[in-house]
């Protein structure tokens, strides 16, 4: 379980005050807010990439409290396909993530087949469309085989067929016990497989309330 206690985020101004939340394995959680309200900043804090002004984030594993620095291989976050280096191939990234997070225990070939990447996975990423890049990013989550997935706008750039594939992907991950936390705009397709949808409204963390 990933736990957040009394978390406060401040950038140029207050973004979120005194957030408390629990994120359990086998469930998906949506985070919805208008642009600039702190969705990405929150995911960065949960991933340990950004420090909150106040509050704590930690993992409870078999009854033991673990700070984020001790759970790096349990959590995977890749913020955007813009992070991808155009000189490398999708396969380069899949092999690196699989080796670094899953100790090479995930079958990369099966993931490539699932996301229909065969035709371009060995090409330089500079030749990819936005949708192709996003499929590589989602495949990276699969080969990481981590317990916690943090996703920022995960359906960005996906066509209708791959949106459906992503919904299936999320459902299967939940069955495997993954804890999935993702940000999105208002999107009924994603919310349909979410166990809870949270909203950041007027700097407050809303526990499942819909609407702004």
From TrEMBL:
PROSITE patterns per UniProt: ABC_TRANSPORTER_1 (PS00211), ABC_TRANSPORTER_2 (PS50893)
SMART domains, A to Z: AAA
This protein's UniProt keywords: ATP-binding, Nucleotide-binding
InterPro entries the record matches: AAA+_ATPase, ABC_transporter-like_ATP-bd, ABC_transporter-like_CS, P-loop_NTPase
All residue ranges annotated as the ABC transporter domain in the record: 2-212
UniProt GO molecular function: ATP binding; ATP hydrolysis activity
Pfam families (UniProt xref): ABC_tran
Name used for this protein in its record: ABC transporter domain-containing protein
Upper lineage: Bacteria, Bacillati, Bacillota, Bacilli, Bacillales
